[in-house]
Write a structure and sequence with these properties.
This protein is an alpha/beta fold and 236 residues long. Helix content is 41%, strand content 19%. It has helices at 18-28, 61-64, 81-84, 87-107, 128-142, 165-180, 193-204, 219-232, and strands spanning 8-13, 33-40, 51-55, 72-75, 112-116, 147-152, 156-157, 191-192, 210-215. A seven-stranded parallel β-sheet has the order 3-2-1-4-5-6-9, with helices on both faces. It has a two-stranded parallel sheet with strand order 7-8.
């Protein structure tokens, strides 16, 4: 699908999550997009002439595949082991659903994919979570998208609809260790979800072909670039 500046269509899957909710805001305020298509289990509490929403069951691949038409595909879909209940259910959401979305979008002519993964993603990891994320990154990269962007945030900071006690503890520990070790654990330093969202929207406008991976500690610089653009247009 040909890219035309100022008339792009963004597709967002998972806009109700911590990162996705911020991406919605930045997509709506970005004049590169004339339309934002959101697919999720429930509708967003946002209204805009640019926003088209579909409530879907990501387990029903055939029913939503025709809706994945546009230029930039943002995928923020994911769950936790605690919420999924077991390894099989977790992998179904974080790997199978995401791969189905990506393949359908590619078949529909989507150019770019912007995927939220995780720090530590490695298909050979002994940690199941990291292993699944690594397998996903590997297999997404094999798809024939014109441009693939993979973001690997560490522990996310921001207000979630639901409480994640383990994550809250990790945030405190992560901040403390980073201070004590003088930044030696920068790769694992917690990052604001807002920063990840800004980085993703910023990168999508660069129109760079190929496969690109962004470690967590690189995201702040990309977010700063987006802040400059927002200030320039009086949106910040």
């Amino acid at each position: 699908m040909e890219i035309s500046g100022g008339n792009k269509v963004a597709i967002l899957c998972g806009g109700t999550g911590l990162i996705g909710s911020h991406i919605v805001h930045y997509l709506l305020s970005n004049n590169a997009y004339s339309k934002i298509v959101h697919l999720g289990r429930k509708k967003l509490a946002v209204e805009s002439d640019k926003l088209v929403q579909y409530t879907v069951d990501f387990g029903q691949y055939v029913s939503y595949a025709p809706l994945l038409k546009g230029h930039d595909l943002y995928i923020c879909l994911g769950t936790t082991m605690a919420k999924a209940g077991d390894k099989e259910s977790f992998k179904k959401v974080d790997y199978t659903y995401v791969m189905n979305i990506a393949k359908a979008a590619l078949d529909n002519g989507v150019n770019q994919i912007l995927l939220v993964s995780s720090v530590g993603a490695n298909p050979n990891s002994r940690i199941f979570y990291n292993q699944v994320k690594g397998e996903l990154e590997r297999d997404i990269s094999k798809l024939n998208f014109w441009s693939v962007h993979i973001f690997q945030p560490s522990i996310l900071l921001g207000e979630r609809p639901e409480s994640r006690f383990g994550e809250s503890v990790a945030k405190v520990i992560g901040k403390g260790l980073d201070f004590v070790l003088g930044g030696l654990l920068t790769k694992y330093k917690p990052v604001e979800a807002d920063v990840v969202a800004k980085a993703m929207v910023n990168v999508a406008q660069k129109l760079e072909p190929g496969i690109h991976v962004y470690p967590s500690h690189f995201l702040q610089g990309l977010a700063d670039e987006e802040d400059k653009r927002l200030r320039k247009h009086g949106l910040l």
